[in-house]
Specification:
The strands form two sheets. A three-stranded antiparallel sheet has the order 2-1-5. Strands 3-4 form a two-stranded antiparallel ribbon. The chain has 326 residues and is mainly alpha-helical. Strand 3 and strand 4 form a beta hairpin. Helix 1 packs parallel to helix 2, helix 2 packs antiparallel against helix 10 and helix 8 packs antiparallel against helix 11.
């Protein structure tokens, strides 16, 4: 009988993180795909009000280094070696033999999208004051305060503006037009996240043709981009059965596979929509489990809403180049 052995690190978490970072950095010096730099969090190595340093290390540092490292291994010596993650996921979305490559490219892109849309609450506070934000006071200075205590103190002591009040007027009008209120949109994200039985991403997207705003769910490493709508990624296979009729009808009229009908390439899948992703919420367990625990997904979503960078969402809602989102 084989006995499972528990492997306990002999080094503290900080040392392991630095060692892993150095090792991965050496491997990535020869690779194009790199872990993006999150300038807004480089000083804290955390997301104030959302993720502690330990939570940030799991959700971003460890996770992204592993994903990018695997992506570099899979693309080495191929035509994808010199392409960015968005281009790779678009090109591999229709090819079932490239499913693994799609997953890693899409996951890298989605996770970066999620983190880039977050704001540093410390920086927000510093913009309103002369000096830097005061860290939350604790009874024991040697131990950091619980994350919830940090969130309450950042909000109360530093008197930060609410997330809703930071939404630019034009974007707020659009949200109210399509969701009736900002609060309705918040509840849509919250309820959708709790209803998801499995990891994935929840997106606020804009229909590129009608400019309507909608909520879009992609499970696992699914992508909201138009080129990826060939994949049945909005279906929770734990609770839904596939609609074989639609798939059969499509393949019956396809002469050479997905995307080709009568010899003519179809860039958009049947039922697909040309959408622009504006905002992303990760419901993967590694994003919230460290700081919020087994039953803490709802609390995580609430804290995420307070750390959204609405200026970046506004910039995505009115892009200069529309073709980059197809």
């Amino acid at each position: 009988m084989f006995r499972p052995r528990l492997r306990i690190p002999s080094q503290p978490a900080g040392a392991l993180l630095r060692q892993t970072t150095r090792q991965t950095s050496i491997r990535q010096r020869r690779a194009l795909h790199m872990v993006p730099v999150l300038d807004q969090f480089s000083r804290d190595n955390a997301v104030p009000g959302l993720l502690s340093p330990a939570g940030f290390a799991t959700a971003w540092t460890y996770n992204m280094f592993e994903i990018v490292d695997r992506l570099n291994q899979m693309t080495a010596g191929t035509s994808y070696e010199n392409q960015d993650t968005l281009t790779i996921l678009k090109h591999t979305a229709r090819d079932s033999s490239q499913a693994a490559l799609f997953n890693y490219a899409s996951m890298a892109h989605n996770n970066a999208f999620f983190f880039r849309q977050l704001v540093n609450l410390n920086s927000l506070y510093e913009k309103q004051t002369v000096g830097p934000a005061e860290p939350p006071a604790t009874a024991d200075e040697s131990q950091p305060p619980p994350l919830q205590q940090q969130q309450d103190q950042y909000q109360n002591q530093n008197q930060l503006p609410s997330s809703d009040s930071r939404i630019p007027p034009r974007l707020k009008t659009e949200i109210e037009t399509h969701f009736s209120s900002v609060e309705t949109l918040r509840l849509e994200f919250y309820n959708t996240a709790l209803a998801m039985f499995g990891p994935g991403f929840i997106w606020l997207v804009k229909n590129a043709n009608t400019t309507d705003l909608r909520i879009l769910v992609t499970y696992l490493a699914g992508s909201p981009y138009t080129a990826a709508h060939w994949r049945r990624q909005s279906i929770d296979f734990n609770t839904s059965s596939g609609d074989a009729e639609q798939a059969n009808q499509f393949f019956e009229r396809s002469s050479t596979g997905a995307g080709n009908s009568g010899g003519r390439f179809e860039p958009q899948a049947p039922g697909g929509t040309d959408v622009i992703p504006l905002l992303c919420l990760s419901t993967w367990e590694h994003a919230w489990l460290t700081d919020y625990g087994i039953g803490g997904k709802g609390q995580f979503v609430g804290a995420w809403w307070d750390t959204i960078d609405w200026d970046k969402v506004e910039a995505m809602a009115n892009p200069r180049r529309r073709d980059q989102f197809k």
